[in-house]
Amino acid sequence: MYKNVLNNVKQLLSMEVKLAQQTLMDGVTTIEAEEFTPDYSVGIVTPDGVVPMPVGEYTLANGDALVVEVEGIIKSIAPQAVEEAMPETNHPAAEATEPVMAEATAKKVVETVSKETFFAMVEKTTELQAEIERLKVELASNIPAATPINHNPENEIVKDSFQFASKRERTTEDVVFSKLFKN
């Protein structure tokens, strides 16, 4: 489990992770894992990438038996041995340990999946932040500069004169001046 997390961290830091490959007994299918030991992830190499190995027992080209109980996780790997018929006994201690082992394996898988999901989200967040910064720069370069306001001295504003009304009566002088200064 911690080995998978270490691999994810190495991949995020762009460190080289060397994977081992082996061929199954059919001679065609190639599988890949960092190490062919229990609790490491294992996958089938396809042209589209690596696919998690389905649950089951597989025989490798060298004769070893590979057991996968949880998709993509090696349960055990051992040399192929001749099966001997052993009498089956009901042993309460053996029955009690099976659910604990299944629960522990399930916990490991859930933890691995949650960590992989977390690292994938961190990677996407980083990519999104880079995209946001790129769009900000692009938007800033597309906004035209504000045009300055210039004073136009030729534009004169004509004001109408206004004469306040007076409470006094008009005198002869007022009448003469109004006729003289009238346009």
Can you put this structure into words, describing what you see?
The chain has a domain at 2-79 and 99-140. The chain is rod-shaped, with a radius of gyration of 43 Å. It has three helices and seven strands. The chain is α+β, with helices and mostly antiparallel strands. The strands form two sheets. It has a four-stranded antiparallel beta sheet, with no helix packed on it. Strands 5-6-7 form a three-stranded antiparallel beta sheet, with no helix packed on it. Helix 1 (2-12) packs parallel to helix 2. Helix content is 39%, strand content 16%.
Helical stretch count?
3
Helix fraction by DSSP (H/I, runs of at least 4):
25-40%
What would you report as the Rg, rounded to the nearest angstrom? Answer: 43 Å
Which series of helices and strands comes N to C? HEEEEEEEHH
Global morphology? rod-shaped
The pLDDT mean sits at: 76
Quote the distance from N terminus to C terminus: 103 Å
Question: What descriptors fit this protein?
Answer:
alpha+beta; 4-stranded antiparallel beta sheet; 183 residues; 3-stranded antiparallel beta sheet
Topology diagram in text:
Blueprint: H1 2-12, E1 20-23, E2 30-33, E3 42-46, E4 49-52, E5 56-59, E6 64-68, E7 76-79, H2 92-142, H3 172-180
Antiparallel strand pairs: 1-2, 2-3, 3-4, 5-6, 6-7
